[in-house]
Design goal:
This protein is α/β, with parallel strands linked by helices. It has one domain (11-198): Beta Polymerase, domain 2 (2-Layer Sandwich). Helices cover 38% and strands 21% of the residues. It has helices spanning 19-22, 39-51, 53-56, 88-99, 142-156, 159-170, 175-183, 189-194; strands at 11-12, 63-65, 79-84, 103-112, 115-124, 127-134, 197-198. A hairpin with a 2-residue loop joins β4 and β5. It is globular, with a radius of gyration of 17 Å.
């Protein structure tokens, strides 16, 4: 979300560069960690590997984001893959050639918060897969930064905190607002998390 910065920022205090070290040394740029994860993560690995998504889209810096990698997903949670590319037309052609055969395939380009983005969705087995692309390096996109920050928070909190996040999501709350609520963050929850630092 590209909103104006918050003036009141909460601090838990950890620099973005140290998020990976704090977050159990998981390399989220490679989906191999899913193989050692819970049952749903292992199934996600099987499906993503079967589709060869990360091989086929390697040129677009694909990264798996969202709630499944950090184990706060619901049964209906999808597999969110972000990519980076400057040519939306070629990207759409690439996705159509690879994945339009799958159920409920849809693709469109639109502008969200002033940023042109392409989104493709389709279903494979029990998963809905969403591939999202902006003209921005994947690791700098908010979806990835939110996930890294949320995982670092979960690593510092106990299992009860994770259960509360999942409970709020089951009640209909989105992930970032759920974190903001439990952390007592004011203002726009998406910006508040991006401005959060961890100690």
């Amino acid at each position: 979300m590209l909103e104006k910065p918050l003036t009141n920022v909460h601090y838990i205090c950890l620099t973005p560069q140290s998020f990976f070290k704090q977050a159990m040394n998981i390399d989220f740029t490679n989906i191999n960690y899913l193989k050692e994860g819970n049952e749903r993560q292992q199934r996600a690995y099987e499906v993503l590997t079967k589709l060869c998504i990360f091989e086929n889209l390697r040129a677009y810096q694909p990264l798996l984001t969202g709630t499944i990698p950090i184990e706060i997903d619901l049964p209906e949670s999808d597999l969110d893959i972000i990519c980076s590319c400057s040519d939306h037309t070629k990207f759409k052609e690439k996705l159509r050639s690879l994945y339009s055969i799958h159920n409920h395939f849809e693709i469109h380009t639109d502008t969200w918060n002033g940023v042109v983005s392409t989104v493709a969705t389709f279903h494979v087995d029990e998963f809905e897969i969403e591939i999202f692309r902006q003209d921005c390096p994947s690791e700098q996109q908010n979806a990835y930064k939110h996930m890294i920050i949320e995982h670092a928070i979960l690593c510092k909190k106990d299992d009860e905190f994770r259960k509360e996040i999942i409970g709020l999501k089951k009640a209909g709350m989105k992930t970032e607002p759920a974190f903001a609520k439990l952390l007592g963050l004011d203002g726009n929850p998406y910006e508040a998390l991006l401005n959060l630092t961890l100690t």
